[in-house]
Amino acid sequence: MSESILNTTATNEQLRSLVMDQRARRDEYVNAISNQLQAIESLEAENDTKGDKNLEKAIMWYDKFLGFQVVGGEGVKFVFSKIDVQSPDREYSFCIKLIEERYILVHCVPFVDGSKELVKDLNCNNDLYKFVRTMRERFQVATISGNLSAISFCPDMSSITSSSLSALSLDSRSENSTNQRHTRSRSKNLKIPTKKGLSSQSAASPGSMERC
Fold it and tell me: How far apart, in whole angstroms, are the C-alpha atoms of residue 95 and residue 138?
């Protein structure tokens, strides 16, 4: 009987020792995971900071060398300068809006030939940045050739549904207050309109615009 008690006691001690070892390993793993998570959070914060700085540099690059700005309001307005060598501060712009899964050219100042066809292509391929680059190129070509129109472009309202017109009207009423709140820092959060199922982006890389 005493031998059985001794064996049971020894077994209990072994089990207790195993439990203590398992707890020690568990605590070690928890600490290791916690340290890894802290390291990951630190790296993510550092990357976010670098990303913000890179975005600011890209915005400054666009503005300094291409005179390129993106402005929110009635749709999204793309503004260019530094196109006309004789008048580098002259602004060229167009505004697009996504209505019922289709891009609409709200206005184009000054109007350039072929812009309607470019919008049709945009609705087929959804390549917004190609569209922006091509529009800037059309402004350049029209300026060099002297074929710029003195009028701006507005859409044919008969081709837009009543619900779309309502959306345009609401945006028009809010445009003034929106523009007053607009600052350069908002460019980081500006959502470029994209069709469903495709991601939104706030800016193209400097290299993509450089090809214009």
Answer: 15
If asked whether residues 46 and 74 sit together in one domain, one would say no
pLDDT tens profile 161-186: 334 434 443 444 444 444 444 434 44
One domain, residues 10 and 93: no
State the pLDDT at residue 127.
92
Q: Taking the complete model, does pTM exceed 0.90, yes or no?
A: no
Cβ atoms 134, 112 nearer than 8 A = no
Q: 7 lies in which domain range?
A: 1-51
Residue-wise pLDDT tens digits, 124-152: 999 988 999 999 999 999 898 887 765 55
What number of other Cβ atoms are within 10 A of residue 193's Cβ?
Answer: 13
Q: Are 81 and 91 in contact (CB under 8 A)?
A: yes
Overall number of domains in the chain: 2
Instruction: Output the six-digit token pair for 21.
Output: 């070892």
How far is 71 from 67, CA to CA, in rounded Å? 13
Contacts for 74 with CB less than 8 Å, ≥ 6 apart: 95, 97, 106, 168, 171, 172, 175
Whether residues 47 and 71 fall in one domain: no
105 and 185, same domain (yes or no) = yes
Residues 106 and 155 in one domain: yes
| Burial degree of 130 (CB within 10 A; 0-12, 13-18, 19+) | middle
